[in-house]
Please model this.
Amino acid sequence: MSLERPVPAGEAGAGVSGAGHNGVVQNARKNDAGGRLGAPYHAAAGRLSAGRGVAAMASVDVVDSGQQRTQNDLFAWWDQNARDLPWRFGRATPWGVLVSEVMSQQTQMSRVVPYWLAWMAVWPDAASLAHADTAEVITAWGRLGYPRRALRLQECARVVAQRYGNELPHAYEELLALPGIGDYTASAVMSFAFGGRIAVIDTNIRRVLSRVFLGIESHGGASTKPERELAERVLPRDVRASKTWNQSVMELGAIVCTAKNPLCEQCPLAGSCAFLAAGRPGLGERRTRPRQRFQGTNRQVRGLVLNALRNLGAEEPPQNTEDKDAGEPGKTTGKTSVTTLSRDQVEALWNDHVQLDLCIASLDEDGLIEILPDRSLRLPQRFNGAASQ
Ligand code: SF4
Model:
């Protein structure tokens, strides 16, 4: 991946604070937007290289005279419509931004907010998370799903605390080398936390850019070389504008230019969107296979076991329901660190004991539970670093 290395701007670092939201946000937005509406954009001439399913791209100038207007329209929309998420507008530390990005993977940002607030109140930095009881970490992850991410985040915290003195490194390559951190998260931290100029590429951004500039649907799956080239070509050269561009394109994809039902009539880019002009061909088409139903899957069974462990000590016993894990945001009572689930209780969770034992084995292998000699279960008492994404 060809990346222009960002220049750290030290923009974040105000700490985690929820105080004075409205006033803070307004001021922060002004600061964030400083000079951006009139920021010079030096269009890079070029055409996309031909690639899979993008024959039409070759004749499309992705950067043209309309680029500046697109940027201006988008930034004006961002100023008025950006969601007031607590890790935005310079209110979170770089570590807080990283936590928000890890939590937001495969989970809607609006759902992440209460978990992030509770999490950061207990573990505001890498060092505090590094020393946390792993059972507490898994419990606090609650309904965010894919709990291996919690273990990987704790593993990441240990490396940051020990190798980098509790401060996230400012280099993309060093971020990428951290446990559980991929290209998207490293790029997002570089742009959103450090204010560096770097193309951030996630599903929402790919979809919006493909529609607006190429007039075709993005089909999901792994990002293609033409998509990455497009993201880099249209990224504003102005450093501060590049951050706003990444955030606003992503936001547009999350709340307006959605996958199945884009709200084109409300879209600030309707006047310049090639996809809309072409009649929205292939709207909603996906390359990836449909989502697997949840009921009866190993994921459901794993969630039931974790849910039961998280809720030990609660008045109501865990139910055999579809709910994959019913922890409350930031629930860190400590009860689960000293309590076990007996074999009888485990077997009551799921009738198919072959599937149940397979799932227990996989949870143990992932480092999310411990199996005691009498086959009772408990959440891990120590971080063992065995989880993987
Ligand atoms: S006009 Fe429609 S398809 Fe184009 S960017 Fe806006 S919401 Fe998406």
Summary: Confidence is low (pLDDT under 50) at residues 1-62, 315-328, 330-338, 384-389. Strands lie at 370-371, 377-378. Residues 239-255 form the longest helix (17 residues). The longest strand covers residues 370-371.
